[in-house]
Amino acid sequence: MKAIEGGSYPFRLISDTDFYQLLPHASGRRRKKLEAAYSAYLEAHHIAAILNWHDERPSDGTISFPGSFIVTNPDEVLEKMQSLRAELSR
């Protein structure tokens, strides 16, 4: 989420395996909230409009892979991700 806030697209996402390892440590009600928040997180990645950095700012220089993509609709994407951030920070 910090990468999107900073103007780039993350090259690594929260995997299903990592997420489902967390669930046994949550209570029943909290587990449902976490699952709903994770679904919104995955949906946010599907609605993200991504451009290559060079398409937006042409140059002859090279850039690192993590910084080579930008999200053109970051507000919409971050809004969908907020519920997961809130649940994980509890």
UniProtKB/TrEMBL annotation:
It comes from the Bacteria. This is Uncharacterized protein. It comes from Enterobacter kobei. The lineage of its organism: Bacteria, Pseudomonadati, Pseudomonadota, Gammaproteobacteria, Enterobacterales.
